[in-house]
Model the fold of this input.
Amino acid sequence: MRPSLLLVLVLALAACKEEAPKPLTDPLNLLDHASQWHVFDIAGMVVPDGIAVTMTAPEPGVIAGQSGCNRYSGRVEMRENLLHVGALSGTRMMCPPTQMEVEQAFHSTIGRAKGLRLVGETLEFTDLEGKPLIRAHK
Done:
């Protein structure tokens, strides 16, 4: 087989991939499906030990996890360089008051997030001014 024909075949196979990777500049790449983030701060409130607030991206454009008491999922996207988190749906169990307070804080804060960045090993959802609203680690 001639080298140029081999190159054409390799390039053709590479073009058959289902989905090209997003550019590294897209902050949503920080929410890859292989990582689970553990929220430790919500608008300055430390998440108490024993209360799980987690976040992962089971598929592109979706976030899901635990919000203190219940499981949640919702759409997330970047539009005009701003993060947009859609309404979160989830289970509707009742838990002790502290867990419910954390859950309420998470749900009322995540929708205000307009940016996403990695600072060291901390994932931060930020407001329009870049102030951290939600902080998480792996």
User: Anything to note?
Assistant: The CA atoms of residues 52 and 71 lie 10 Å apart. The two ends are 48 Å apart (CA to CA).
